[in-house]
Each structure stands twice: as C-alpha cells, then as structure tokens.
Amino acid sequence: DHIGPSSPPTHALAKAPVATPQHSVDAFVKVFLQELNTGQGVTLSRSTVNDQYLALARTVRQYLMTRWLETSRHYAESGSKAIGYLSAEYLLGRQLGNALLATDLGEVAEEAMRGCGLDLARLRAQEVEPGLGNGGLGRLAACFVDSLATMGIPCIGYGIRYEYGIFKQSFVDGRQVEQPDPWLALGNPWEFPHPEASVQVNFGGHTETYDDGGVQRTRWVPDWNVVGVPYNYMVPGYHNGKVNTLRLWSAKATNAFDLALFNSGDYPEAVRAQTFAENITKVLYPEDSTPQGRELRLQQQYFFVACSIRDFIERVLGPDFDLHQLPERIIFQLNDTHPVIAVPELMRILVDERHFEWDEAWQITKQCFAYTCHTLLPEALEVWPTELLGRLLPRHLEIIRRINADFLDEVRASFPGDEQRVRNMSIISDDPNSSVRMAFLATVAGTKVNGVAELHSQLLADKVLHDFDELWPEKFTNVTNGITPRRFICLANPWLSELISDTLGVGWVTDLERLAELEPYAQDPDFRRAFREVKQKAKVHASDILRARDGIELPPGHLVDIMIKRLHEYKRQTLKLLHVVSLYEQVLSGEITASQLQPRTVIFGAKAAPGYWMAKEIIHLINAVGSVINTDPRLEGRLKIAFPANYNVTLAERLIPAADLSEQISLAGLEASGTGNMKLALNGALTIGTDDGANVEIRRLVGDENFFLFGLSEPEVAALRDSGYRPRQYYESNPQLRAALDLISSGIFSNGNREAFAPIVSSLLNEDRFMVLADFQSYMEAQLRVREAFADEEEWTKKAILNVARCGFFSSDRAMGDYLREIWHASAI
Ligand code: B1H
Questions:
Q1: Considering the entire predicted model, what is its pTM?
Q2: Which residues of 55-84 are buried (b: 16+ CB within 10 A; e: fewer)?
Q3: Cis link prior to 394 (omega < 30° from 0)?
Q4: How far apart, in whole angstroms, are the C-alpha atoms of residue 303 and residue 261?
Q5: How does pLDDT run across 451-496, given as a tens digit for each residue?
Q6: Catalytic residue selected from 73, 374, 541, 799
Q7: What does the pLDDT read at residue 380?
Q8: Which end of the chain lies in a sparser environment, N or C, as judged by fewer CB atoms within 10 Å?
Q9: How do strand 559-564 and strand 600-605 relate by DSSP bridges?
Q10: Pairing between strand 90-91 and 168-172?
C-alpha cells in the first residue's frame, strides 16, 4: 500500500481521503489565501512573489492530493504488475504549469490570481526547474512517467534527489562558466519527504561464508553505511484523475555513523562523517554521453537502486510477500547502464537474505529487468574497474563473477571451441585492466534489450552487441523514443494547441495520431494563415523571453534556425557554425551581396560538460563568431547568431514553438535517437538532418519533400573510415570550405589573435573524428534548398503543417504502449 505518499490508515473509515476543493475561482482563492496565511505565515499584502508562488503551488497540490491517495490505494488493491523505472536522471522541467494543465485549473488559477491582484505568469516564472538530468536521457524519463500516469499504468519512477542539479551556465568573455544550481534554496513545494520510510544502504567491507544449519552461505560484512530518505513527487496524469509517484532518494548519515564519534568527543570527525554520507546525493554529474568512472558516481548508482529495490520489496509489496511471485508484480526498466548494479543487488537479497537457491534466484531476477541502451559511442559504455567494485561492493562483485561464469558456460555450450567469442562476450574484461562491462551485464540479465530508434537498435544488434544478438536474437527489440505532447505542445505552444483543438476537438492530446486529421488542412489557405499566425505569436513570445532573459533581440521576419542540444563534437555544432562563417565570408569576399542572404537568426542552446575541453572551445567560438557577425554592418542585419546561456527545459519550451528550421546534423550512426528533433517537428519546424537516430523515421513519416536530408549515411561513414578518412583533402579541394576555415584562422573572430581557435581548426583538419569536413558541401547545398523553400511562404507553411500532421507517432504515449506490449507485459488497471 506504499506506492503512494503515506502509510496506510488502520481503520476503514480513514481510507476515504479528504475531499478535493471545488473547481471554482472562489474555492481556489480561499485555499490559496489559507495556504498563504497558514502555510507561509504571511498576509497577501506582506507576501513576496516567492511566498505567492509557494502558496499557489500548494493550492494546486491540494487538488491533486485526493487523486494521488486514491491512485495508490487502487494500485495496491488491484495487485497488478507495476513498472519500476530506474533512472539516475529525471529532467522534469517546471512543475506548476504541468499540474495546472493536468487538473485543468489553468483558467481558474489565472482568474483567482487576478482576483488577488496577482499575475499568474509572474508566479509561474518564480519556479526554479528541477534540473536533475543532463539532456535527452533524463528528459525521456520525465516524458515516460508523464505518459504512464496519463495512461493509468502503475509506475514508480525511482531516482536521485540531487541537492544540486545540472550546473547553471553563464558566459564570461564568450567562455562557459559553471555555477552550482541550488534549486532547493527557495523551498520546494512539490516534494513530500518520508524519513520514516528510510532505507539503510551499506558499502565496503568484505564477505564471509558461514554454516547455516549444514548449508554453506555467504554474507556481506560492510564497513560503512548511509541512510536513504525517500522524497515523493506527484506525477499527474492528464485529465484522468490519476497521479503516479516519482520517488527520489536523498542520502543522510546514519546515527550509528556519527554517534560513536560524537560520544568520543571527536566533533569535527563526526561532522566530516555526515558530510561524507551526504555527498552521495549532493550533485548531478554533468557528463552527457561520456561518463567518468568516478567512485562517487558508483556510490550514487548503488545508493539509489539499493534504496529502490528495498523500498519496492519491503514497503510496496510488504514483508509477507512471497518473492517467487516477484516477476508478476514488477518489471524494473534500466534507463541505460547507470542502474545496472540493481541486478546483483536483487540476487544478493534473494540468495543471501532470503536464502533462495542461486538458480531459482537467477530465474526470478532475469524476469524482473529490462535494459534500454541509449548510445553507440564506445566511450559512453560504462565500465567499472573490478578493483573499485570489489572495494565498494565486494559481495556484488562476487555475484557478478558467478553470473559471468554461468553465462560463459552457456556461450561455450552454444559455440563449442570458440574461446575468442567467450573472451569478447565476457562481462568481466581484462583489457586493459580488469573491469566490469555494465552493458554486457545488463544484456545478460535483461528479458529484453532495446535501442531508442530503429537505426540505433539495428546498429546495437549488428555491432555493439552483435555476439549477444547471435546468442539471443529474441532479446533484442526497438522502441523508438517519444515526447509528451502535454508539455511540448499544450504547455509550450498554447497557440498551436488552440488551433489544433479548434480544428479537431481536444482528443488529440492523448491520441496524438489524430494529428493526421490535419493533413487536408495543409491545402486550406485560411488554415495556413492561421498556422502562420501561430508561428508568429510563438516568435514574438520567444523574442520577449530572450530580450528579458538575455538582452537578445530576435529581428522580426527572420528564418529562425535552431540548434538546441548538449555541446558534443558528434552532434557537430561546428558544422552549423561553418555554414554561418561561410555565408559571412561569401559576403566579405563579394561572392554574394548581403541582400542575397535569406534573413536568418541561428539560435544555439548548449551546455558543455565542464571537463570537456574541446566542447568548451567550441562554445567560445560560437560566441566569438556571434559577436562579430551580429555587429558587422556589411551583413545589413540579415544574419545573426543568438546564443542564450543556460539552455534548459524551461527555455526549450519557449524556443521550440518559434523554430522554422530544426538542426539535427549529427554524424550518421552516432545520435541514438534524439528527441528535440521530435519536439521541433511537432511544433511545425522543418528538419535539416542526416540519416541518423530518429531523423530516419521522421523523414519517412513526413516525406522527403518535407525534410532536408544531407550527408553521409551510416554505411558510407563506415566505408569512408575503413578506406582511411583524410579531412585535409576536403579543405584542399573545396574553396568555400577552405575560405571559411581560413577566416576562423585569420583572427577576425579573436581580435587578430590567429591562435585563438587553432585547436578547433587543426582538430578538424587533422583528425575530424566526426567528419564535419566530409559533410560540409552536402550541408551547404541542403541549406540552399532551405533558402529556396522558405522563400515560398505558402509552400513552406504546407510543409510545416504536414510535419505536425505526420509526427503523431512520436508521442511518448505510443512509446509507452510499445514498451507495455513488447517488454513489460503490463496494462492499465
Ligand atoms: C543519451 C546518454 C547519457 N545517450 C551518460 N546516453 C550519461 C550517457 O551521466 N552520464 O554519464 C548521461 C547521459 N544520453 C541520449 O539519450 C542520446 O544521446 C540521445 O540520442 C537520445 O535521444 C536520448 C534518449 O534516448
């Protein structure tokens, strides 16, 4: 009975939760003022904006509370199978707007606030978004839990309550500077701590065997521990009266930990111990795609999965539950390899604590996990040194060794005499040092292994996990990612939402394939005009935000060209930049006149991992190019770069609706899926993109004529690499490319300093791991096609409408349906 927020009441009458306040402005105002007075301890006239925001959030919370209690009671009583989504990241974005949307209280709240002399938009702007994730992977987790709640599927999202989320980015002289993100500083009205449901988590020590009435058993004798405190968050379903739970864990020092020290009088040491424990959930690692094998990170991973599994088994199911039936009640979805240590943890609980036979425990464990892989970059595949694992989690390492030994026996039985294959597939590798390959462990343990777009799943099975696919082809499947239309259409783009609802009725929000019904309207000039007005309003809104937030002016009438994603070389922000630099160079050299430029503003949004030197150099270059071209009168204001700092979910919601062109230009074979590509297409942007990740599916759905394809395909990339890629050849043979690179080297963007960007240029000329130079020509040609297409307003609008109409597939509701059918075998109750 603990899926929800609190312990079960003891007598039947207490089961009826308090009534939800009425959906009227008066009732809303009453609750709001009460929250302000008794919750915040202030009167309206004395309250700050933060007081008002907190009281408003708590008011909306009251409307969700009954539903939350009811949902959890209903799930517990039904005894149905739940999803345990295990993710080290949830990039939630602001909560208030989403809660108002889910409860349909937006208009009531707006009027109620007006009645109190307050502005709802101003209060909403007070919320600091929980940035508990890096990028696509964390945002995907947030979209998935939204969809499961909306579909009425029992799900608990388990994760980490980082005290500091993804760093705040600012620019100083064009360079990225990181500041901590103290997102909890002004109070967090959306969380419910439950210290009484805390869980102890052990670390270190050694293992020993002992005789248990004639049976030899192993136990772990840890030497330190911390406590995990759960904080529950509401995950409201859209207009369905359901509220699921997201349970994030926060680390605290145990009493035993510091008490002995306090008693001995060593206060500084006692405080140190406390700090040490609480460091575990102090901060999100800001690496996207390239994890650093740091000890604290492994502590984070084990900490949150140990808490989550213990929580589910002992509190959700209860102490009397027969764990033989575990697979009927839970499937833990592993969001990448970050939570994979959950596999040996469940084995340890079953074998060491519950005294299951190994084989039986393994049968159960195998049914309780499924694994989603999110990458193809070799450096992104997590690997832990056995030395570190053995020191931190000695029993888990033993269990992994046994899983591996049994697994390799199975490989030998299927491929007798093929010892090379055995070495290649071993979970424990000796190359170069003894280490555990977490993706292999996840693949061996999972009932299913999925990639996140068709091409990615194909490449996983053909390349990264090829040997495993040969052994167990039925394990491998694809689920193409999706995005929640609630946040990324309804909340982000109220103008488009209204146009769609006026045209189709409101059902599309939970049935996104209904957008297909917009298709005929692409031929309707009135609809096209209305559609352009929507885009125009979004541009004005984005422009207002950028002016207030960053002092950036978006010139009216420009093509809005958007590249928003983490800064990574494989994503190729440098290719976008070379396009801009080349246009500038063509004007400077007189090859074209400024008047021939299609008026265009290129908007970048990107954070670089603080330790990723080259990515930070690229940020510097983007800003440097921006500050020169934005002020050069020779361009007549027809080419601009806007690079607002601190791109996050909140800013994404503002920018995406304003986009005309969506840049999805990774080197083919490297972007597992992408999800920004889906958000932009669904908001009526056309994509310029490579045949990579979900771009492949977007193009297939919207049609070639509504998509600007360019660049090498994945097989062409592989062939070029095999034949010996020499980037300098492209520089030598392509005058336009050479002129653009030479302009960067000339010092024009660095006050005459010719060395400032030499590392970027020389990396492109000499190595160019991601084949920017090879794709340059094709990209420039595709941009010419964009230019031409955008010049025909009516035709462009048709294409944009068709993008919206044909992308309903990319709802995360569909993705969740696929997981439910293909992987989880669970359903709504
Ligand atoms: C994705 C990550 C990722 N893939 C390591 N891998 C991390 C890897 O903290 N770390 O160490 C954090 C994140 N993130 C992204 O997942 C892919 O690059 C996107 O293509 C994909 O759309 C997204 C969701 O599947």
A1: 0.97
A2: bbbbbbbbbbbbbbbbbbbbbbeeebbbbb
A3: no
A4: 23
A5: 999 999 999 999 999 999 999 999 999 999 999 999 999 999 999 9
A6: 374
A7: 85
A8: C
A9: parallel
A10: unpaired
Provide, for the chain, the percentages of residues in helix, strand and coil under a 3-state DSSP scheme, each rounded to the nearest 5: 55, 15, 30
Q: Has 679 been annotated as catalytic?
A: yes
Ligand 1 binding pocket (C-beta < 6 A) is 134, 136-137, 140, 285, 287-289, 291, 336, 374-375, 380, 452, 481, 671-675, 693
Other residues' Cβ atoms within 10 Å of the Cβ of residue 529: 12
Which amino acid, residue 359? D
Q: Are 229 and 193 in contact (CB under 8 A)?
A: yes
| Cα–Cα dist 561/496, whole Å | 19
Q: What is the DSSP letter of 283?
A: B
Tens of pLDDT, residue by residue over 2-22, are 444 454 445 555 666 678 999
State how far the Cα of 693 lies from the Cα of 481, in Å rounded to an integer. Answer: 10
Q: Which domains does the chain have, with CATH numbers?
A: 79-93+129-480+817-824 (3.40.50.2000), 554-808 (3.40.50.2000)
Q: What is the mean pLDDT of residues 88-95?
A: 98
Atom of ligand 1 nearest to the CA of 372: 25
**Ligand 1 centroid – CA 138 distance (Å):** 8
Mutate to test the pocket of ligand 1, among 374, 568, 666 (most ligand atoms within 8 A of CB): 374
**Does residue 136 contact residue 674 with C-beta atoms inside 8 Å?**
yes
Count of positions (residues) in the chain: 829
- Strand locations in 42-98 (E): 82-86, 90-91
Q: Residue 151 corresponds to which tokens in the numbers above?
A: 């579909």
Phi and psi, residue 167, nearest 5°: -55, 155
d(CA 767, CA 675): 29
Report residue 239: phi and psi, to 5°.
50, 30
Q: What string of DSSP letters covers 643-683?
A: --SS--HHHHHHHGGG-SEEEE-PPTT--S--SHHHHHHHT
Rounded mean pLDDT, 610-614: 97
Using only C-alpha atoms, what is the Rg of the chain?
27
Q: Which of 675, 687, 690, 797 is catalytic?
A: 675
Q: At 156, phi and psi to the nearest 5? A: -115, 125
Residue 337: closest CA among 453, 480, 228, 437: 437
